[in-house]
Specification:
It is a single chain. It contains 14 helices and two strands; from the N terminus they run ααααβαβααααααααα. By secondary structure, it is mainly alpha-helical. A two-stranded antiparallel sheet has the order 1-2. Helix 1 packs across helix 6. The chain is globular and about 60 Å long. The N and C termini lie far apart (51 Å). 50% of the residues are buried.
C-alpha cells in the first residue's frame, strides 16, 4: 500500500469517525446523566430509533430539519419520562423496564415509520470546514454536521454542571447514596425520573442525526444497536461526560474502518471490519468487568454494582 492510499484511508477514518461518533455521543451523554442519578436505562435504543423516525417525519412534513431534531428530542423525552415513572414504582427492576421500553420505542417507530421509508426529507446541512484544503478527500472529511459541535458543547456543560452546581451535586448524591439524598430532603425518584427524561431527550436528538445527516434516511435497520453499545461506552468513559467525547470518537473510528478501506478498493474482510464496533463493545465489557477503577467510579446506587 503506497503513501497516498494510506493517507486516503486515514482521512476517510477521520471523516467517518466524526460522523459515526455523533449519535454515540448523544446517547452516551444521556445514559451518563441517567446513571449518575443511580438508574440504568437500557431502553435508549428505543429512544434512538423513535427519534430517528420522528425527526424524519417532521422534517418531511414541515420542511425544517431543525424542527425535526427538536421533535426527536421530545419523543425521547416522553419515552424517558415513561421509563422514569415506571421505575419509580415499588419492586420494579430498571433493567427489565429498559428492555421493555426498547421494544416499545422501536415497535412504535416501525409501525408509524413505514410511510416514510421511501419519501425524501430535508436533511441537516453540514458545515464546510475544509474549504482551505487542496485534497478533495480532506474537504469531504471536514464537512461536519452542527450536531457534532452541539454534542461537544453539551458534554462540556454537563461536566461543569455535575461538578459545580447544586443540581449536579443533587444528581451525584442521589446516584451515590439514596439514604444520604433523603437525609438532605431530596426525593430520589423525582431526581431519577427527571434525569432519565433528560437522558431520553439527548438520545432522541442522537436518533435525529441518523435519519437527517448520516446515513440520512429512515429505515428499520438504521440504529444497528448503537443505543445498547452506548451503555458500554459510558462504562468505558467511567461516567465522565468529557471522556464520553473521546470514547464516542473511538467507537466512531472503529465503525469507519470498513468504509475507509472500501474507499481505496480494499473489500476483502469488509464485513469483519464493519463488526469492529461490536468487537470493541465486547472487549470493553469484559475489561470493565475486571476493572477496579470502573467499579470505584461507578455510582453506588446503580443496579449493575449492587
Amino acid at each position: 500500500m503506497n503513501d497516498g492510499a494510506t493517507a486516503t484511508i486515514l482521512i476517510a477514518i477521520l471523516g467517518g469517525a466524526i460522523r459515526v461518533s455523533t449519535p454515540f455521543m448523544f446517547v452516551a451523554l444521556g445514559e451518563t446523566l441517567t446513571e449518575k442519578s443511580g438508574r440504568i436505562n437500557l431502553g435508549l435504543e428505543g429512544n434512538l430509533v423513535l427519534g430517528a423516525m420522528v425527526a424524519y417525519a417532521v422534517s418531511y412534513h414541515t420542511g425544517s430539519p431543525f424542527l425535526g431534531v427538536f421533535a426527536a428530542g421530545i419523543s425521547g423525552l416522553l419515552l424517558g419520562t415513561m421509563h422514569g415513572l415506571i421505575c419509580s414504582l415499588p419492586r420494579v427492576n430498571d433493567i427489565a423496564v429498559g428492555i421493555a421500553m426498547m421494544s416499545f420505542g422501536t415497535g412504535i417507530a416501525f409501525f408509524f415509520g413505514k410511510p416514510y421509508i421511501q419519501p425524501s426529507a430535508p436533511r441537516l446541512e453540514a458545515i464546510h470546514m475544509g474549504d482551505w484544503a487542496d485534497n478533495p478527500a480532506l474537504r469531504k472529511a471536514l464537512e461536519i454536521n452542527p450536531l457534532f459541535f452541539v454534542g461537544i458543547a453539551v458534554a462540556i456543560a454537563m461536566w461543569w454542571a455535575l461538578a459545580n452546581t447544586r443540581i449536579g451535586l443533587i444528581v451525584r448524591m442521589t446516584g451515590d447514596s439514596e439514604p444520604a439524598a433523603r437525609a438532605m430532603g431530596v426525593h430520589p425518584d423525582t431526581v431519577r425520573t427527571l434525569s432519565t427524561a433528560a437522558g431520553g431527550f439527548l438520545a432522541g436528538v442522537g436518533g435525529a442525526f441518523l435519519s437527517l445527516s448520516y446515513p440520512g434516511s429512515w429505515n428499520e435497520g438504521l440504529s444497528s444497536g448503537q443505543g445498547l453499545m452506548a451503555v458500554a461506552l459510558v462504562i468505558f468513559a467511567r461516567w465522565n461526560p468529557l471522556r464520553c467525547i473521546m470514547a464516542a470518537f473511538l467507537f466512531g473510528a472503529a465503525g469507519a474502518i470498513g468504509p475507509a478501506l472500501q474507499s481505496v478498493g480494499i473489500s476483502q474482510g469488509y464485513y469483519f471490519y464493519n463488526a469492529a464496533p461490536y468487537i470493541l463493545t465486547l472487549f470493553i465489557m469484559v475489561a470493565s468487568a475486571r476493572s477496579k477503577a470502573s467499579a470505584r467510579e461507578a455510582p453506588g446506587e446503580l443496579s449493575i454494582v449492587n
